[in-house]
UniProtKB/TrEMBL annotation:
<dbReference type="InterPro" id="IPR014729">
    <property type="entry name" value="Rossmann-like_a/b/a_fold"/>
</dbReference>
<dbReference type="InterPro" id="IPR000192">
    <property type="entry name" value="Aminotrans_V_dom"/>
</dbReference>
<dbReference type="InterPro" id="IPR015422">
    <property type="entry name" value="PyrdxlP-dep_Trfase_small"/>
</dbReference>
<feature type="compositionally biased region" description="Basic and acidic residues">
    <location>
        <begin position="14"/>
        <end position="31"/>
    </location>
</feature>
<feature type="region of interest" description="Disordered">
    <location>
        <begin position="883"/>
        <end position="929"/>
    </location>
</feature>
<dbReference type="InterPro" id="IPR015421">
    <property type="entry name" value="PyrdxlP-dep_Trfase_major"/>
</dbReference>
<feature type="domain" description="Aminotransferase class V">
    <location>
        <begin position="123"/>
        <end position="425"/>
    </location>
</feature>
<dbReference type="Pfam" id="PF00266">
    <property type="entry name" value="Aminotran_5"/>
</dbReference>
<protein>
    <recommendedName>
        <fullName>Aminotransferase class V domain-containing protein</fullName>
    </recommendedName>
</protein>
<feature type="region of interest" description="Disordered">
    <location>
        <begin position="1"/>
        <end position="56"/>
    </location>
</feature>
<dbReference type="InterPro" id="IPR015424">
    <property type="entry name" value="PyrdxlP-dep_Trfase"/>
</dbReference>
<feature type="compositionally biased region" description="Basic and acidic residues">
    <location>
        <begin position="886"/>
        <end position="895"/>
    </location>
</feature>
């Protein structure tokens, strides 16, 4: 039995009230101290949290440099830092080794310049020091108040809640209390889920509807969302849809820059008309776009929502770092607005996106107290700390609106950190406001003007400063001719934060956004992000992928490629095709003016020269990543990766210095000179790369990738531009023609009125280009949709049929799972649906799969070898069967076999024989069960072997065999080559046994010898050696005859 309320107040509310009273007393003492009144508060006995205005900072440049220094965390690094007395600061940077070289065998060392603030902001040294020195000594569980650790920890949590409420103008104390501040797990995503639990929407049922026999007509609630929404403020609401709710999205205005207020009002009026008994309407909007930084008019939208009786919810995940979060704004004296018309009903944001919050902070939900139900079950927050009393057969939840929805032990340290973050935010607004007000006053006096504007609220001056900076930066980016700023056509008249998403044109396509991110990192140390930024619908709109529905007033000019791209991603897993852009952000509190110039010049450099480095990078279709060819298997470098496993308790200062020596670096030169030096090194590196004729020649011989069809492929391959690099062209032909764009992306910022969609639509249905994965229009009528809605009890969602079937086979879904069939407009079981839409396979009747001839420009040089490879056939047998991808399933296993691997049966070891030649080795190999690699693997390995001239007559190969899938696959591919190709070469195998309990390669001994191969099995504690040897490169003693001749 469950009782959702208690019979009176509980101790937690009394404790909270006591903490609130102490907080108010502390604020009064702090105010008295600031006005020169003596105070003996014991709060002064601890370490004060130093704020910028106490350090004698007089200009915005100095303030920004102070914040940047606080972000570096270089105290523990081996570095030498000197003061620049003329500028009053020391500009230290963390350096790391790039994959690129600016001299032969000399890696490019680049300064780390963080510009991914929209994803997560950086922690601050001052905050972490304060937590370590003042707070952590008193850490304890907040579910007790009788110990000093529990009491002080609870007091810190309560104070953090009150600081956030104060800065956000939430009223949580006293008789005027009307808001609640709740902490929620992982950022905005958890905060939105908590809001849904507070409202009881998952358990929503209309009692009047049930009494009327289930007639829901005219009673469905409406949830209307904004067009800029992040997935965190989109998917949870969509998942509530179905039979109970109507979910709609407001359109953008005709210029694409703002929410269309007329369309929003049309949605509200239309729903009220069609559902006159609608119990409630919810409007949930982002305060700012995380893709473009566009600021939304929250006051106007809130007024409109309240006018039509709707609740107003706001996502400040992006905006909280810049905007003033005000849940209860004060009406202007010159308007007729009432406070209730402007007050937001709920606000939520992610703590890790604020300055100083990157060390780990929870999400925050501020909601009107009347909306937090004390009757509904607390949903996902149900657990320890949420109950009033529990017996063996019943329990009663707390009615306290805070502890009822904050179950379990909270992220105590994260909440403390978040309180300090918001205190810093308030302090910075005031400090920056004073500086900007003083500068404005000086300018006005210099011009002979009065100081009428000096009475302006100081807290708004920092926001004005950021908006002005954002506009100036945008104007500089728009001057780069081949850079396409996604909102470049729309943001001339709207407020914008310094967040920028862009593509770089290269010929009639674009440089892949992940490649641009890789270059910014490898050449300049700039940390950015590529993709749709978890805001798929808005990004696809800006990229021109949506269908144009002019009959519905949609004049965006989309090319309609969205469905084709989705089909391609579902069927091929080709992540390179996923649409997106490169994004970076340049907040004033986190960057300096010198860094701004450096980043903008770096973007200009990449836009001009980035394509010239394509031949030394490789792309991965399955992950969508681009990496330098030397780091395909180790993206962080073989020597530069840090390891948690290297942690040692109570490490000495000398050990810390040794661990950091050579791995980290700082510079004491002036910031401007440092960044200019990095730019010079980039130019030197470019000269070295464009004269790398070996890499250019290898790129020209690359085979065409079959995964991405030309009609959808929107990015350039290295081979596309290699000949222009060889010919020393300064620009890829066609780059200056914005009308000549191929592929699925047609960014509206190019020119939304000049996009010709006819050509693309014809290419999308081209059967030859899209292969069998994306079908023609005639075939689509006979196939199931790419994505299906499914439901299984309370679990529902959308997925491909193959994934639903796999989920059922793996036990994630039950046998009662149903999918929705659009043709019959009803729900069917999975088995019934499969019977209606059987998969077809275009395999050859004889089951043979031929390896196609690799495409190679130097075919005459390897003609005989290519003919030999082309004749290789993989015959069907018990070892290998060609199974179509859609038919692959995980076999069901007997419960008794769980945790047991299947081992290939081995033949008895033959003693007294030596491998005297290839023929004898092949004959002895027949004693083992030969494994034939899959046809696709053989084809790709054959292409690589021919392209790179990897095998020649007389080669002697030594294979390092660990027993993993990679080395075992290589072994059997080489055995197949040895059997089929005319090239004569020898194979021997070596395994290093590290002598650790976690890895025992000894079962390889009989297996390798059963293949007829000479085996070198060496036992050596290499783990111990690696911990003691300073040099990263060492040789293992191998007792091999003529070992110097081995490859």
């Amino acid at each position: 039995m469950i009782d959702c309320g208690d019979d009176g107040n509980n101790n937690s509310s009394l404790r909270e009230k006591a903490h609130e009273e102490e907080f108010e007393r502390m604020k009064r003492e702090e105010f008295a101290d600031s006005n020169g009144i003596a105070s003996n508060s014991n709060a002064r006995n601890g370490r004060d949290f130093v704020t910028p205005d106490s350090n004698g900072i007089g200009t915005m440049t100095e303030l920004r440099q102070e914040i940047l220094r606080d972000m570096t965390f270089l105290d523990g690094c081996s570095s030498v830092s000197t003061k620049n007395e003329a500028r009053g600061n020391s500009d230290d940077y963390f350096f790391f080794n790039s994959a690129l070289e600016w001299k032969p065998n000399v890696p490019l060392r680049v300064p780390m310049v963080y510009c991914d603030f929209t994803a997560s902001h950086c922690p601050l040294n001052s905050i972490e020091d304060y937590i370590r020195q003042t707070c952590l000594p008193f850490y304890g569980n907040t579910h007790t108040n009788t110990s000093v650790t529990g009491g002080q920890s609870s007091a810190f949590v309560s104070e953090a809640r009150q600081i956030i409420a104060e800065v956000c103008n939430a009223k949580i104390t006293g008789k005027a209390s009307q808001d609640v501040v709740l902490f929620a797990g992982n950022g905005t995503t958890a905060a939105v889920r908590l809001l849904i639990d507070c409202l009881g929407l998952k358990h929503f049922s209309d009692s009047n509807t049930e009494r009327n026999g289930g007639n829901r007509r005219g009673r469905k609630p409406l949830i209307v969302l904004g067009p800029f929404e992040h997935h965190s403020n989109l998917l949870p609401w969509r998942e509530l849809g179905g039979d109970k709710f109507v979910v709609e999205t407001a359109r953008l205005a005709r210029d694409g820059s703002m929410v269309d207020m007329k369309d929003l009002e049309r949605i509200l009026i239309s729903h009220r008309k069609n559902n006159p008994d609608c119990p409630f309407i919810i409007g949930s909007f982002s305060a700012a776009s995380n893709v473009t930084g566009t600021v939304v008019d929250d006051i106007a939208i809130t007024k409109l929502l309240h006018k039509h009786g709707a609740l107003s919810f706001w996502d400040y995940a992006t905006g909280a770092s810049y905007l003033n979060v005000n849940i209860n704004p004060t009406p202007s004296l010159y308007s007729d607005d009432k406070a209730a018309d402007l007050a937001k009903d709920a606000v939520f944001f992610s703590g890790h996106k604020l300055l100083g919050g990157g060390g780990g902070t929870p999400g925050v939900l501020i909601v009107k107290k009347q909306l937090v139900s004390s009757l509904n079950p607390p949903g996902q927050a149900c657990g320890g700390g949420t109950v009033f009393y529990v017996t063996k057969d019943r329990h009663r939840f707390l009615s306290d609106r805070i502890e009822r929805y904050e179950g379990g032990t909270p992220n105590v340290v994260g909440i403390w950190r978040l309180g300090l973050v918001w205190r810093l935010k308030l302090s910075l607004k005031i400090s920056a406001g004073k500086i900007l007000s003083s500068e404005k006053k000086q300018n006005e006096n210099g011009n002979g003007n009065g100081s009428a504007k000096n009475q302006q609220d100081l807290s708004s001056l920092l926001l004005e400063y950021d908006l002005m900076r954002a506009r100036n930066i945008q104007e500089r980016l728009l001057k780069i001719s081949n850079l396409v700023l996604l909102d470049g056509k729309f943001s001339s008249s709207v407020a914008k934060l310094p967040i920028y998403s862009f593509l770089i044109r290269c010929g009639n396509r674009f440089l892949h956004y992940n490649y641009v991110c890789a270059l910014l990192n490898d050449v300049f140390g700039i940390q950015s992000r590529g993709g749709c930024q978890c805001a798929g619908p808005y990004s696809q709109y800006l990229l021109g992928m949506n269908n144009t529905d002019k009959s519905n007033g949609d004049c965006t000019g989309g090319c309609g490629s969205n469905e084709a791209v989705e089909n391609w991603l579902v069927h091929t897993k080709d992540e390179l095709m996923r649409p997106g852009a490169t994004r970076l952000s340049l907040p004033s509190m986190g960057t300096t003016p010198e860094q701004e110039d450096y980043v903008l010049e770096a973007i200009r450099w990449v836009a001009t020269h980035g394509w010239k480095l394509l031949h030394v990078y490789r792309c991965n279709h399955r992950s969508g990543e681009w990496r330098h060819k030397s780091r395909q298997s180790s993206p962080l470098g073989t020597n530069d990766r840090r390891w948690l496993s290297h942690y040692r308790m109570k490490a000495s200062a000398k050990e810390d210095a040794d661990n950091n020596d050579g791995k980290t670096g700082t510079s004491s030169m002036e910031e401007g000179s440092l960044l200019a030096n990095a730019m010079k090194n980039a130019n030197k590196m470019l000269l070295l790369v464009i004269h790398d004729q070996s890499s250019i020649s290898q790129t020209l011989k690359m085979v065409e990738e079959e995964e991405s069809p030309s009609s959808l492929r929107w990015y350039v391959y290295p081979k596309d531009v290699a000949r222009y690099i060889r010919d020393s062209l300064e620009e890829v032909p066609g780059t200056e023609d914005p009308s000549n764009i191929q592929g699925a992306l047609r960014p509206l910022a190019l020119d939304p009125n000049d996009i010709d969609t006819t050509e693309l639509e014809e290419k999308i249905v081209d059967k030859e280009d899209l292969s069998s994965a994306v079908t023609t229009e005639k075939e689509k009528d006979n196939l199931h949709p790419a994505m299906l809605h499914f439901r299984d009890g309370e679990h529902s969602g959308e997925a491909a049929l193959e994934e639903i079937i796999e989920g059922r086979d793996d036990g994630e879904l039950s046998d009662y799972c149903q999918v929705f069939d659009p043709a019959s407009d009803g729900w069917l079981t999975i088995d019934s649906y499969i019977e209606m839409y059987k998969y077809s396979c275009d395999d050859n009747e004889d089951g043979k799969v031929e390896i196609e001839d690799p495409i190679c420009e130097e075919e005459n040089a390897v003609e005989s070898l290519t003919r030999a490879v082309s004749s290789i056939e993989i015959e069907p047998n018990e070892d290998f069967q060609f199974i179509p991808k859609n038919d692959q399933k995980k076999p069901k296993r007997d419960l008794s076999a769980w945790g047991k691997g299947q081992v290939q049966p081995l033949t008895t070891k033959v003693e007294g024989n030596e491998n005297n030649g290839k023929d004898e080795a092949i004959s002895r190999r027949k004693k083992s069960k030969h494994i034939k690699p899959p046809a696709k693997l053989m084809r790709l390995c054959t292409q690589a072997m021919i392209q790179w001239d990897m095998l020649e007559d007389g080669d002697r190969l030594l294979i390092g065999l660990s027993g993993g899938k990679d080395s075992m696959s290589l072994l059997h591919v080489l055995l197949e080559f040895q059997k089929k190709l005319p090239v004569r070469f020898e194979i021997e195998v070596c395994t290093i046994d590290p002598m650790t309990p976690s890895f025992d390669p000894s079962p390889l001994i009989p297996y390798v010898e059963s293949l007829g191969l000479k085996y070198h099995y060496i036992r050596d504690d290499i783990g111990k050696i690696s911990m003691n040897v300073c040099c990263r490169y060492f040789f293992l003693p191998l007792n091999l005859n003529n070992s110097s001749e081995w490859l």
